[in-house]
Design a protein that fits this description.
Layout lengths: L2 E6 L6 H12 L4 E7 L2 E2 L3 E2 L4 H9 L5 E5 L1 H4 L3 H15 L4 E6 L4 H14 L3 H8 L4 H12 L2 H7 L2 H15 L5 E6 L16 H9 L22 H9 L3 H6 L7 H11 L3 H8 L6 H13 L3 H5 L5 E6 L1 H9 L6 E2 L2 H5 L3 H17 L11 H4 L3 E2 L1
Parallel strand pairs: 1-2, 1-6, 2-5, 6-7, 8-9, 8-10
Antiparallel strand pairs: 3-4, 5-8
Helix pairs in contact: 4-9, 5-8, 5-9, 6-7, 11-15, 13-14
Length: about 375
């Protein structure tokens, strides 16, 4: 048995994801598990389909076991997203390799960029750029250009390479012996509208919301889709009730972002206005979108700093069951969130938060399901 792990959002699952699974098999994987974002995603949005629906599609298209990446991790920056997912994979105790896509597909170049980032983030040039109000990515690029050749700064400029680099960092920081395998990404670039055999997930989401045919690019899912626009009033109501000091406690609202977001919330009449009024060269739109959802859901710095208290299984097939049999899990693992909530005080707190996040996510559907679905949902067994 050789077990590969993949970190994904599957928002939605498309044929580019299927290609990565095929490459994992080609690398020798007999069993493949996915750590998948729950109902909220790293770009600061609602997942287009709920987590169990996306788990089912993944299982129907080559994944053997789907584990949930909790919302507090899926709404973090690339570093936190990668750290949380690698933490879960490492705790499972049986993965042999981590397979991920990147624009370059060059593992040596990604490792070089990883080391360069570690150095550049501690230079005087980087700190000077941050003080001048530059965003973290812009300041990092400036520092890299000062000390490294152009190819290194180009490597980190793409979002898919950025995540790949953070996966490598997370493996190193975790002292993991899991083998990293980089696969060159095919088709459209991140968030682009290019047509072809492979198009971006954002382009597919637009087709789904506009009720266009997307069967050429992804397995068709016959389930209701979520849209953050249906949550707009609820988000505005929640943020308007927060005090100025509350915004400073929201995860990743340091460096003045909390104060700026607070002022925007007081003046804005829509989510789009909040993003516009908060946006500066220092704060990327993705960071602002994540901060808005963290404030709405109640993800503060204390919750974000907690390590996982459990591992939740969303679905599996027969090979997935073999992965679980081989696991030497350092954490409680189960398909039932209710059962997991009883394993420790930390697990109870984290499970209650996840269930509440799901209850709020439900309002993003045209016909919202009732509260409590996370505690009663059955795993997907194929």
């Amino acid at each position: 048995m050789k077990i590969a792990a993949i970190i994904a959002e599957y928002n939605p699952f498309h044929y580019g994801h299927k290609y990565l699974i095929e490459q994992a098999r080609a690398a020798g994987a007999t069993h493949i598990l996915a750590v998948m974002s729950g109902n909220f995603t790293q770009r600061g949005d609602c997942a287009i389909f709920d987590k169990h629906t996306r788990a089912k599609t993944a299982l129907e298209n080559g994944i053997d076991l789907v584990l949930e990446l909790p919302s507090r991790y899926s709404l973090m920056s690339a570093e936190g997203f990668a750290r949380g997912a690698v933490e879960i994979i490492s705790a499972l105790g049986c993965a042999d390799m981590l397979v991920f896509g990147s624009e370059s597909g060059d593992l040596a170049a990604l490792k070089e960029a990883s080391g360069a980032i570690e150095f550049a983030a501690h230079t005087e040039e980087f700190n000077t750029m941050i003080k001048r109000g530059k965003s973290y990515p812009s300041a990092l690029q400036a520092a890299l250009r000062e000390y490294y050749t152009e190819d290194v700064s180009e490597t980190i400029s793409d979002p898919n390479n950025t995540l790949a680099i953070e996966y490598l960092n997370a493996l190193d920081n975790n002292g993991s012996v899991i083998e990293p395998i980089a696969v060159k990404r095919l088709g459209a670039r991140h968030d682009s509208d290019e047509d072809g055999k492979f198009i971006s997930a954002s382009a597919i989401r637009r087709k789904i919301r506009e009720r266009e045919d997307y069967s050429q690019f992804a397995p068709v899912v016959n389930s209701p889709s979520a849209d953050i626009s249906r949550l707009e009033r609820a988000i505005l109501a929640s943020l308007r009730q927060m005090r100025p000091e509350d915004f400073d406690l929201v995860y990743d609202c340091a460096g003045g972002l909390g104060n700026r977001l607070c002022k925007a919330v007081r003046a804005a009449k829509s989510l789009g206005e909040i993003y516009f009024l908060t946006k500066t060269k220092r704060y990327t739109l993705a960071r602002i979108r994540r901060a808005v959802l963290c404030g709405f859901l109640g993800i503060d710095k204390r919750l974000a700093a907690e390590k996982c208290a459990y591992i939740r299984v969303l679905g599996m097939n027969s090979r997935g069951k073999e992965i679980l049999s081989a696991a030497k899990c350092a954490l409680p693992i189960d398909t039932s969130l209710k059962s997991l909530s009883r394993t420790s005080r930390e697990a109870a707190r984290q499970a209650a938060f996840e269930a509440r996040a799901t209850d709020l996510y439900a309002l993003a559907f045209e016909n919202p399901p009732p509260c409590g679905m996370d505690f009663t949902a059955k795993p997907i067994i194929i």
